[in-house]
């Protein structure tokens, strides 16, 4: 007997199968094993590279254990593979920008969080725009950021537009009063803020009443909204105890209510 039994799971040249019949041969002739494969029943001599496929239960029943060090290595490999399926960066190799390790770590925290609502408060010149760009492009490639709104002081609008295009290959439309009029004249849409999926606008333009109303009634909403110079979104408590909210603050509240992810960027962080 070859040591095989009907019902054994075996590996064979080219795959695996299950023994359904054994033809015993006399003398030195190898037994003939009939193995059920994906393509049908095929005969194999028992000596033709056929091996039993043992399950973890088989190993436990026979007290057969592998090398602990090898097991630890395989476990570590599996954990690393599962981990980096979700936080592996796919956008960085295609970005035309020099990226520092601390910027990657900041972006990783945002990308792996549940709600993606963060304040990034780096010092001036440390690349908050780059960190936001990494997050934007990574989410876009993963199809999690189709609609993006960037709110920034007016003098920085074109800078953001240029950096997003040149460093991350993403084009954004700048919304100002003239652009709004152009869109309204060329479209029958009720809300022009729904016409473009990547928008940059100034905080002082967006805080105007008609824009706030339009932004509060968006369908679809934003996947991600970014506020640059977010320390300008102020609310003050008066001596009477009443909280006075500025129009900029109210704008931020409206946008926060109609976006999935929210990034505040500032070089000022009061402790």
Write a structural description.
This protein is α/β, with parallel strands linked by helices and 271 residues long. The protein has 2 domains: 9-61; 86-265, Rossmann fold (3-Layer(aba) Sandwich), CATH 3.40.50. The protein contains 9 helices and 13 strands. It has helices at residues 56-61, 68-87, 101-112, 128-141, 157-168, 177-186, 203-206, 209-216, 247-256, and strands at 9-12, 15-23, 32-37, 40-45, 51-52, 117-120, 148-152, 173-175, 198-202, 222-227, 235-237, 243-245, 259-265. A 6-stranded parallel beta sheet has the order 6-13-10-7-9-8, sandwiched between helices. β3 (32-37) and β4 form a beta hairpin. α4 (128-141) crosses α5. The longest helix has 20 residues, at 68-87. The radius of gyration is 31 Å and the shape is elongated. The mean pLDDT is 84.
Task: Give the overall shape, derived from the CA principal axes.
Answer: elongated
Nearest-integer average pLDDT: 84
User: What is the rounded Rg?
Assistant: 31 Å
What is the CATH topology of the largest domain? Rossmann fold
Low-confidence stretches: none
Write down the secondary-structure element order: EEEEEHHHEHEHEHEHHEEEHE
Q: Helical amount among residues, as a percent range?
A: 25-40%
Number of domains: 2
Level-2 CATH architecture of the largest domain? 3-Layer(aba) Sandwich
Count every beta strand, where a strand is a DSSP E run of 2 or more residues: 13
Q: Which structural class matches the secondary elements?
A: alpha/beta
- Distance between termini? 80 Å
Largest sheet, order of strands side by side?
6-13-10-7-9-8
């Amino acid at each position: 007997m070859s040591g095989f039994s009907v019902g054994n799971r075996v590996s064979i040249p080219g795959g695996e199968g299950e023994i359904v019949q054994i033809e015993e041969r006399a003398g030195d002739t190898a037994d003939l094993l009939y193995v059920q494969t994906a393509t049908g029943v095929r005969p194999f001599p028992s000596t033709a590279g056929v091996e039993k496929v043992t399950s973890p239960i088989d190993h436990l029943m026979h007290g057969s254990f592998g090398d602990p060090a090898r097991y630890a290595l395989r476990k570590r490999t599996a954990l690393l593979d599962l981990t980096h399926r979700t936080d592996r960066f796919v956008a960085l190799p295609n970005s035309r920008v020099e990226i520092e390790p601390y910027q990657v770590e900041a972006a990783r925290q945002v990308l792996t969080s549940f709600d993606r609502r963060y304040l990034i408060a780096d010092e001036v010149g440390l690349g908050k725009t780059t960190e936001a760009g990494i997050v934007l492009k990574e989410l876009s490639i993963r199809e999690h950021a189709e609609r993006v709104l960037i709110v920034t002081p007016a003098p920085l609008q074109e800078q953001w537009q240029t950096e997003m295009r040149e460093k991350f290959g993403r084009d954004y439309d700048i919304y100002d009063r003239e652009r709004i009029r152009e869109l309204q004249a060329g479209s029958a849409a009720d809300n022009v803020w729904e016409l473009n999926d990547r928008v940059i606008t100034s905080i002082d333009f967006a805080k105007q009443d008609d824009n706030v109303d339009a932004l509060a009634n968006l369908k679809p909403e934003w996947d991600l909204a970014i506020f640059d110079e977010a320390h300008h979104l102020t609310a003050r408590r008066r001596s009477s105890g009443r909280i006075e909210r500025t129009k900029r603050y109210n704008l931020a509240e409206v946008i926060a209510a109609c976006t999935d992810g929210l990034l505040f960027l500032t070089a000022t962080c009061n402790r």
